[in-house]
């Protein structure tokens, strides 16, 4: 499935700062990186060459799956500000 | 930061979903002007479900809801489809009830409608505002901290949904474990009304629900669904989070695959995706219900894990728990007693309802399914389909031979002791549902 195409059906008001803050040191040594494949919006991507987790927080659907699954329990997860984030017209 | 006395009210409700808005309506009708704080631009704008709302539970709060609520279709048929790799067995129950059992709705419209009703009754809705933490003093919740302001109240009702960061903050519950929540993905597909009617054998305002077992989720703890709306179809699935850890499976790929199943594809053919969404579903059940009250605070709806997964029931439990919490709050406000001891009445009254009784009856369901998913949700689903494949075959082989072959293969694939152990698991489950 083309996840980007699906995400393009949504109205987003992105913030300028991320509401998702992983701990870079933990991500480096994380075994499964469950956030990467569990996220229904493909927000996380492991960049091997740079040894870091890319977080496309603007695409977040605010479900909370990554927070619960974080292997190191170190992902700082907050709701975006009241005026920001995703909007479901139907849901 | 405003002084406590300036910004103090009777009741603050965090979360404008079905649970919070039901609580707000009941309190407003009793003249208490509750404040509902909702993080979305409007109620419903952050919410996702299958889904159908249950008429009886909505009626309890809004007897005439059918006149004004944004309803899609009145469900008259409920189908259970067991999907194999490329075949399926579908059981279907159809009846146009005298009084509607459930309606498909869109939460973006329905929650908003509920919010309007609560406001008409006198509730105050503060939107686009996130409650960041609860304010406590001497072991008592005395208010909420938002991005902009602090608000104080005699009672705070937590209706902040499955993630309930607030219940966690004050220690009413531990963090959710991956096996106790499912992530769901959903698409709304635009489809001509007439086509929907033809494909699902419906008249204009009639609806059909599909529950999907197996398919892309064979062997996994997951369930899919289809709901018909006026001129669109909602299709989605929920998969328990621990199925996604270290497996490389992506939730939207499971959805894509189930959409391609030969039983499903013709139903949705030509449907254009007009909205994609995702949400968590609490799956912990009875054993994971948090502490439901403390000094100055009560927890309702998904925040309290009140969902019956087996039946896709959540909004009705949310509405009723919200109502009971509000009724408890009303007496507490009259007696000016907001103590933990007094608010324990909320739990006592909840225990008298179907909510706690149902969740208790199903308390072992998820554990058993979790242990046996590779068997029940793979081998057995395939065997059901294999049975009907055998039963409907016309191939010159004598029937007795066919039956014997089927039984032999069943025993071979599952093992004699395996079958006995499965039988015990089912009996244990039935016993806990039916007896004690
Ligand atoms: C895929 C799926 C299918 C489902 N299908 C059905 C179905 O067919 N029928 C059914 O009855 N149930 C169904 N459910 C369950 C149902 O959706 C929930 O049980 C129900 O929505 C719970 O209502 P609630 O008010 O407790 O929580 P929610 O509906 O989640 O409402 C919580 C509200 O609180 C707000 N909020 C959260 N945190 C904060 C904060 N810190 N500050 C301010 N606001 C906040 C949110 O924006 C939201 O509006 C389904 C669920 C899912 C995910
Ligand atoms: S699971 Fe947690 S620690 Fe691991 S990569 Fe993801 S955010 Fe980092
Ligand atoms: S909250 Fe959900 S959508 Fe957002 S990053 Fe986490 S898993 Fe992805």
Folded structure, characterized:
The complex is a heterodimer of chains A (91) and B (436). Chain A has helices at residues 3-7, 24-29, 34-38, 65-69, and strands spanning 11-13, 20-21, 44-47, 52-55, 76-77, 85-87. Chain A is α+β, with helices and mostly antiparallel strands and 91 residues long. A two-stranded antiparallel sheet of chain A has the order 1-6. Chain A has a two-stranded antiparallel ribbon with strand order 2-5. Chain A has a two-stranded antiparallel sheet with strand order 3-4. In chain A, a hairpin with a 4-residue loop joins strand 3 (44-47) and strand 4. Chain B has helices spanning 18-29, 55-61, 65-68, 107-120, 165-169, 193-200, 251-259, 265-268, 315-335, 340-351, 354-361, 365-391, 399-414, 416-434; strands spanning 8-14, 35-37, 52-54, 73-83, 88-94, 102-104, 124-126, 131-137, 140-146, 150-158, 181-190, 206-214, 222-228, 232-240, 272-282, 293-294, 297-299. In chain B, a hairpin with a 7-residue loop joins strand 12 (206-214) and strand 13. In chain B, 48% of the residues are buried. The mean pLDDT of chain B is 96. Chains A and B meet through helix 1, helix 3, helix 4 and strand 6 of A and helix 4, strand 11, helix 7 and strand 15 of B. Bound molecules: flavin-adenine dinucleotide and iron/sulfur cluster (2 copies).
Structural class computed from helices and strand pairing of chain B: alpha/beta
Say how many strands of chain B there are: 17
Portion in helices of chain A: 10-25%
Radius of gyration of chain B from the CA trace?
23 Å
Structural class of chain A comes to alpha+beta
Number of β-strand runs of chain A: 6
Shape annotation of chain B: globular
Strand content of chain B: 25-35%
The number of distinct helices of chain A, counting runs of at least 4 residues, comes to 4
Terminal CA distance of chain B reads 52 Å
Order of strands across the biggest sheet of chain A? 1-6
Cα shape of chain A: globular
User: Strand-residue fraction of chain A?
Assistant: 15-25%
């Amino acid at each position: 499935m083309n996840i980007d195409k699906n995400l393009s059906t949504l109205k987003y008001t992105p913030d300028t700062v991320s509401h998702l803050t992983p701990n870079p040191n933990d991500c480096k040594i994380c075994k499964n990186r469950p956030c990467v494949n569990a996220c229904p919006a493909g927000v996380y991507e492991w960049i091997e060459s740079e040894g870091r987790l890319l977080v496309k927080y603007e695409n977040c659907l605010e479900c909370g799956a990554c927070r619960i699954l974080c292997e190191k329990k170190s992902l700082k997860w907050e709701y975006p500000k009241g005026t920001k984030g995703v909007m479901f017209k139907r849901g | 930061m405003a002084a406590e006395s300036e910004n103090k009210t009777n009741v603050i409700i965090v979360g404008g979903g079905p649970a919070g808005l039901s609580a707000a309506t009941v309190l407003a009708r009793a003249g208490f002007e509750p404040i509902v704080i909702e993080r979305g631009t409007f109620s419903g704008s952050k919410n996702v479900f299958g889904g159908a709302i249950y008429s009886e539970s909505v009626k309890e709060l809004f007897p005439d809801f059918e006149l004004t609520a944004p309803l899609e279709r009145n469900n008259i048929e409920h189908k259970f489809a067991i999907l194999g790799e490329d075949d399926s067995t579908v059981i279907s129950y159809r009846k146009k009830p005298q009084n509607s059992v459930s309606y498909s709705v869109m939460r973006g419209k329905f929650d908003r409608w509920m919010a309007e009703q609560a406001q008409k009754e006198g509730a105050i809705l503060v939107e686009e505002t996130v409650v960041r933490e609860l304010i406590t003093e001497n072991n008592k919740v005395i208010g909420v901290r938002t991005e902009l302001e602090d608000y104080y109240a005699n009672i705070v009702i937590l209706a902040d949904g499955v993630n309930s960061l607030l219940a966690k903050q004050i220690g009413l519950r531990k963090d959710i474990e991956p096996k106790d929540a499912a992530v769901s993905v959903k698409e709304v597909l635009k489809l001509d009304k007439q086509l929907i009617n033809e494909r699902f054998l419906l008249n204009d305002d009639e609806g059909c629900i599909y529950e999907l077992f197996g398919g892309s989720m064979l062997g996994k703890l997951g369930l899919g669904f289809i709901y018909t709306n006026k001129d669109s179809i909602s299709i989605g699935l929920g998969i328990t989070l621990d199925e996604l850890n270290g497996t490389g499976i992506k939730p939207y790929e499971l959805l894509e695959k189930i959409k391609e199943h030969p039983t499903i594809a013709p139903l949705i053919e030509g449907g254009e995706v007009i909205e994609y969404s995702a949400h968590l579903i609490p799956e912990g059940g009875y054993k994971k219900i948090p502490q439901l009250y403390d000094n100055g605070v009560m927890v309702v709806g998904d925040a309290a894990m009140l969902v019956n997964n087996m039946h896709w029931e959540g909004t009705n439990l949310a509405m009723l728990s919200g109502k009971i919490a509000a009724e408890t709050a009303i007496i507490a406000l009259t007696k000016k007693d907001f103590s933990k001891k007094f608010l324990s009445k909320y739990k006592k009254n909840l225990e008298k309802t179907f909510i706690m009784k149902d969740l208790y009856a199903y308390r072992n369901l998820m554990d058993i399914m979790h242990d046996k998913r590779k068997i029940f949700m793979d081998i057995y689903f395939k065997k059901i389909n294999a049975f009907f494949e055998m039963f409907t075959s016309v191939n010159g082989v004598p029937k007795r031979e066919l039956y014997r072959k089927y039984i032999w293969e069943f025993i071979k694939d599952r093992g004699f002791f395996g079958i006995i152990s499965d039988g015990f698991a089912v009996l244990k489950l039935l016993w806990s549902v039916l007896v004690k």
